[in-house]
Specification:
Largest sheet: 4 strands, antiparallel
CATH class: Mainly Beta
CATH topology: Neuraminidase
CATH architecture: 6 Propeller
Order of helices and strands: EEEEEEEEEEEEEEE
CATH superfamily: Kelch-type beta propeller
Shape: globular
Number of domains: 1
Strand content: over 45%
Distance between the termini: 15 Å
């Protein structure tokens, strides 16, 4: 804990505790999103939004470009969420949809994954880049694509997964200051 000493009008000193705080942008949790998937009727293109902290659900008027399942999802906090790749009734795709916050408008990036990919893992370094790793294109994938924020430029990493695989899960360590 930090302490500061202040002089009063009568020249007495007092020590007050100062709570450390994070410098930079202040983010408060706003919402979680669920996009696409597969229900009893087949693949879905809809996007549901769960608002925090009330946990209320709304369905966005924006939908995915293609109804699909098995996509990678990642977000650039307070800016946009991304849905990459997936599996449609026609096969695997490489497209990437972007949902801009807070308007919840959807655009499709001109950048695409380096290969068609269903069931990749997604994770992000918020403010820097999102990643789609592994997946299935008819055979298992070991490659990792990076979408750099804010330009949404795609590069393929020279690093690859230890083994080519699908149905994997991704997560990120956001760290702390």
């Amino acid at each position: 804990m930090f302490g500061l000493t202040f002089l009063s009008a009568t020249s007495k000193t007092t020590t007050h505790r100062v709570v450390p705080f994070r410098m930079g942008k202040l983010f408060s949790p706003v919402a979680g999103y669920v996009a696409g998937g597969n229900d009893s009727g087949g693949n879905v293109s809809g996007i549901d939004k769960i608002a925090f902290p009330a946990d209320t659900k709304t369905t966005l008027s924006a939908t995915l470009t293609t109804a699909r399942e098995g996509m990678a999802g990642f977000a650039n906090s307070a800016v946009a969420g991304y849905v990459a790749g997936g599996y449609t009734v026609s096969g695997y795709i490489s497209g990437i949809d972007k949902v801009a916050f807070p308007a919840d408008t959807k655009t499709t990036l001109s950048a695409t994954l380096s290969t068609v990919s269903g069931y990749p893992a997604g994770f992000a370094n918020s403010g820097t880049a999102g990643y789609a790793a592994g997946g299935d294109s008819g055979s298992r994938i070991s490659g990792i694509d990076k979408i750099a924020f804010p330009a949404d430029k795609k590069t393929t990493l020279s690093a690859t997964l230890t083994t080519a695989r699908r149905f994997l899960t991704g997560f990120a360590d956001s760290g702390s200051l």
